[in-house]
Amino acid sequence: MGRFRPGIHAQGAAGFVPVLRAYGGLRVPEVRTTHACETLGRIGSLEVRLARKAAEVRRAQKLRYRVFYQEMSAIADAAKLFSRRDVDAFDPVCDHLLVIDHAVRDKKLPPGPSVVGTYRMLRQSVAEQHGGFYSAGEFDIDGLLSRHRGLKFLEVGRSCVLAPYRNKRTVELLWHGIWTYVLRYGFDVLIGCASLDGTDPDRLALPLSFLRHYAAAPEDWCARALPDRYVEMNRMPKAAVDPKAALRELPPLIKGYLRLGAFVGDGAVIDHQFGTTDVLIVLPVSVINNRYIEHFGPTAARHAA
């Protein structure tokens, strides 16, 4: 669901120590889980599981750098250029979901597993102890959280897959891993920022308007972009929107969320560092399309190792 970015908006995530910890691939004790050593799923030589140690988090950061900064249009600061890794102060408070190809080894890295896909996940209980969710830096999610105080939220983001692995098997394993994680911890709602390439909303008028007219969150699940970052999504009347053409312009990740049944918040946000326009995805587990629950299994048994 997009990416977490370090426009740190809360004291808990700010400061020198969290950033230093992030560059080391280290995580806070609250994130460590007894399930980290378990394989969450496997297809052939591909395995999905959580990062078990700092070196594996660093490999995920390397992959993110290759995709976001070398392949796409993100702008690296001096520290990222030097380390060749995508790092921010949220890394230490997140679980890092990895897809590993055991059939290959990355010759550019020290001996170890080849990470070909990754997702980053921030549990609400951890976020509340360490400065909150990243999404709060772009969207006013306080009302959303308070309206559903009895539910457990999981923020997902920083998703990327190495180019040769952008196929059904890898993406399916990532989703299988997330679904297993959701079931294991009993999460009720997934949230996160998803990105469209480009920072000119007028050039994105068709997909933004489509999302506003066809996927807008109902009031109970809606959150609005922060006032100083708000970009209007309703740039075309509904009658002028060609849904098929709009879907062709949407990134595969956003289309995947919509197929699951996700809602989109009110307003977009421009992220100049990453060269993207972000929207808020809200996915209550209760609305997930039954065909996908049946596909992965109500107990996530489809690709169980």
Distance between the termini: 26 Å
- Architecture in CATH? 3-Layer(aba) Sandwich
Count of the domains: 1
Characterize the overall form.
globular
Fourth-tier CATH superfamily name? Gcn5-related N-acetyltransferase (GNAT)
Q: Decide which structural class fits the backbone.
A: alpha+beta
Output the radius of gyration.
18 Å
Number of helices: 10
The proportion of residues in beta strands is 15-25%
The top-level CATH class is: Alpha Beta
Largest sheet features? 9 strands, mixed
Low-pLDDT stretches are 2-14
The CATH topology label is Aminopeptidase
Question: What is the number of E strands?
Answer: 11
Report helical residue fraction.
25-40%
What is the oligomer described by this structure? single chain
Order of helical and strand elements = HEEHHEEHEHEHEHEHHEEEH
Overall mean pLDDT stands at 89
Structure description:
With 305 residues, the chain is α+β, with helices and mostly antiparallel strands. It has a single domain (11-296), classed as 3-Layer(aba) Sandwich (Aminopeptidase). The chain is 31% helix and 21% strand. It is built from ten helices and eleven strands. It has helices spanning 16-24, 54-71, 78-83, 124-127, 142-147, 168-185, 205-214, 243-249, 252-260, 290-296; strands at 39-43, 46-50, 95-101, 114-123, 139-140, 153-161, 189-197, 224-225, 263-264, 269-271, 276-284. Strands 1, 2, 3, 4, 6, 7, 9, 10 and 11 form a nine-stranded mixed β-sheet that branches. Strands 5-8 form a two-stranded antiparallel sheet. Helix 7 (205-214) crosses helix 8 (243-249). It is globular. The relative contact order is 0.16.
